[in-house]
Structures are given as structure tokens and as C-alpha cells.
Amino acid sequence: MAEQRERKFLGVWIPREIWLSKKLTLQEKVFLAEIESLDNEKGCFASNAYFAEFFDLSKTRVSLVIRSLVKKGCVTSEIHYKEGSKEILKRVLKVCYRPPLTKGKEPIQLKLKENNTVNSTENNKTIIELPLNDGSSFVVDSTFHEELKSLYEKTDILAELKNMKGWLLGNPGKRKTRRGIKRFITSWLQRSNEKNKPVEFAGPEYITDQTDLYGNGC
User: Fold this and answer.
1) Is residue 189 assigned to a domain?
2) 76 and 24 both lie in a single domain
3) What is the domain range of residue 159?
4) Same domain, 128 and 189
5) Is there a domain that residue 101 lies in?
6) Domain of 65: which CATH number?
7) By three-state DSSP, how is residue 93 classified?
8) By CB count within 10 A, which of 10, 25, 35, 198 is most buried?
9) Distance from chain centroid for Cα 182
10) Which range is most confident: 33-42, 109-118, 194-203?
11) Cα→Cα distances 78→42, 61, 90, 91, Å
């Protein structure tokens, strides 16, 4: 008999970002939906045996899917052990992305929201894409680009972003995760900014003793 799990179940809804994601398989998308529906604020405690029976899959396949979701940064997995031993008490899964709960709006409010979203998307253009370790890309949009320009005024941000992309393409084994890519960008720009600082000029040094430039007394 399948494990009976209490769920906050109002139907199945998969967020746009997940449903349209190119880095997730269809199986991974429905796993995310099931984990989310079983998460009652404290996480999802369902075992691999539960998922195997629910999706009619082998436990090995379930383990591979969950491991892939963790690696892609979509799910966190926390193992709780029995005190003083390596016996597993439970595993807690949590979906990293949680769509906000919004109340229904009047049609005119929805229309205004759609228009604002379209305008924001049109104005927020892609500047460059940096390759990540999972095969996907991190998009540096115009908003983030302007923010970087305001922080590192002495640096040609676009030129450095191109240098970053070249380095990542040439060093695939050192590509960053989606969680770590912004730290990589800011660290790179910080070093570049430090190099571009003007050298402070303390003023000319004056000869105080009575010698000429060749060391002879005057």
C-alpha cells in the first residue's frame, strides 16, 4: 500500500519558469509539482519508495531524478540521522522556487499587470549569456548590467563580461553553478576595478642636500 501523505492539494499547477525550462525533463517537472504539493511548510518527507509507487518507477530511477533536481539547484535535500549512528531517520526535500500566492484581481488590474510585464520585458534586454556547469546559461540582462556599472565605475563591464564568457568557454570544468555565478562575476569585477585604480601621485621629491644630480657637492 502506498504511503499516505498529507498534502496541501488544490490541484496541480506548475510555475511558468519550471514548465518552460529547457534544463528540466518532463519527469523532473512533475516531480517538482509532487514535492511541492507534499510540502506543508516543513518540507516534503516522502521516501523514494513513495515516489516509486506514485509514479510507477523503480527506486533507482527515483533516486536519479531527485539527485538531478538537487544538482540543478531546484530542490534541497537534508538527511536526518539517528543520534549517535548513521541510521537515517528521514529525508527532507524542499523546492527552492516557490511561486507567490496572489489573490484574484479585477480584469482591468490583470490587464495593467500584463502591460507592465510586457514593457518591463522589452526594456530589460539580454546583454550576454554566461555558460553554467549544468549546460544552461546565466543571462546578464540590462538591469543587472546597469547595476554592475554603478558599482564598478572604473571598469568596462561589457568587455569584462566577454572576458568571463571566454574564460568559462575555455575552462568548462571550472564553470559555476547558478547559485555561485553572481559571486564569480562580482569577484572578477572587483579584481578588475582594483587594477584600474589610478596611481596616487605624492608630488615631486626635492633634493635637500647640497649635491647635484650626479652626487657631487655644489
Assistant:
1) yes
2) yes
3) 122-195
4) yes
5) no
6) 1.10.10.10
7) strand
8) 35
9) 8
10) 33-42
11) 12, 19, 8, 6
| Same domain for 76 and 22 | yes
Burial of 18 (C-beta count, 10 Å sphere; 0-12/13-18/19+): middle
Per-residue pLDDT tens over the stretch 153-195: 888 999 999 999 999 999 989 999 999 999 999 999 998 888 8
In whole angstroms, what is the distance from residue 201 CA to residue 88 CA? 64
In angstroms, the CA 216 to CA 113 distance is 82
Instruction: State the Cα angle at 131 between 157 and 180, rounded to 5°.
Output: 75
Residue 87 inside a domain? The answer is yes
Angle at 18 between CA 14 and CA 21, to 5 degrees: 140
Distance CA 93, CA 71 (A): 13
Residue 37: inside a domain: yes
Q: How many CA atoms lie within 13 A of 159 on its CB side?
A: 6
For residue 95, give Cα distances in angstroms to 5, 72, 79, 135, 193. 17, 11, 15, 21, 37
pLDDT, tens digit, 9 for 90 and up, residues 73-130: 888 988 888 787 777 778 889 887 654 444 444 444 545 555 555 454 456 788 999 9
Strand ranges, E, within the chain: 75-81, 88-95, 126-131, 137-141
- Return the residue matching grid coordinates 516557490: 98
CB atoms within 10 A of CB 44: 22
Q: What DSSP character marks residue 44? A: B
Cell of 92: 527532507
Q: What is the pTM of this model?
A: 0.41
